[in-house]
Automatic annotation (TrEMBL):
It comes from the Bacteria. Coiled coil: none annotated. This is L-threonylcarbamoyladenylate synthase. The lineage of its organism: Bacteria, Bacillati, Actinomycetota, Actinomycetes, Kitasatosporales. Keywords: Nucleotidyltransferase, Transferase. One of its GO terms (molecular function) is L-threonylcarbamoyladenylate synthase. It comes from Streptomyces hirsutus. InterPro entries: DHBP_synth_RibB-like_a/b_dom, Sua5-like_dom, SUA5_domain. NCBIfam families: L-threonylcarbamoyladenylate synthase (TIGR00057).
Length: 206
């Protein structure tokens, strides 16, 4: 049965955030809010967490997982980014964008696209997510909480708790956070390729 944490959207309780971060370090799989929609998250090196996300969402090995980073300094440890791409990504973060970029050696091979050796990265603009990342001290391995056969991600913490009670370890609820997943931009080929149109404005990449 999943633990349920109700946190204030603007002033998340430090003790609660600390408890959730501790559970992630202990290999927990959590459902948590972002600035676009809810997501599934686990520790960066957790093979069990990756397998559980794949099972819940029925994903194949070509799915791009996302490293949700606290800031640009952290993001830069996990992807290679040239000057032109740097400026484009910097201008769009924090925000509702995921960028696909070549992974560095800091990214476990099991997280990289098997052929492209790429990974998704993003910096969210969400108080609760940022508090959790600050407490955790490393990125969250993450995937949009979009269940197989459904067109929209789940948006209510209580509903997530009800439906996923036996497949996640914790639900972090700070209220409604929208229904649109991030806009995904693939920069791995040097030029911006819009992979998914979502919550982030795509006009600057067209």
């Amino acid at each position: 049965m999943a633990k349920y944490f109700d946190v204030h959207p603007d002033n998340p309780q430090p003790r609660t955030i600390s408890q959730v971060a501790a559970s992630i370090r202990d290999n927990a799989l959590i459902a948590y809010p972002t600035d676009s929609c809810y997501a599934l998250g686990c520790r960066l090196g957790s093979r069990e967490g990756i397998d559980r996300i794949r099972t819940i969402r029925k994903l194949d090995d070509r799915h791009h997982f996302t490293l949700v980073c606290r800031d640009f300094a952290q993001l830069g440890q996990f992807v290679r980014i040239d000057n032109d791409v740097f400026r484009a990504v910097k201008a769009s973060t924090p925000g509702s964008y995921t960028f696909i970029l070549p992974a560095t050696k800091e990214v476990p091979r099991m997280l990289q696209h098997p052929k492209k050796k790429t990974v998704g990265v993003r910096i969210p603009e969400h108080v609760v997510t940022q508090a959790l990342l600050a407490e955790l001290g490393e990125p969250l391995l993450s995937s949009t909480l979009l269940l197989p056969g459904e067109d929209e991600p789940m948006t209510q913490g209580w509903e997530i708790k009800d439906r996923l009670d036996h497949v996640v370890d914790a639900v972090l609820d700070s209220g409604d956070c929208g229904t649109e997943p991030t806009t995904v931009i693939d920069f791995s080929g040097g030029e911006a390729e819009i992979v998914r149109r979502g919550a982030g404005d795509v006009s600057r990449f067209e």
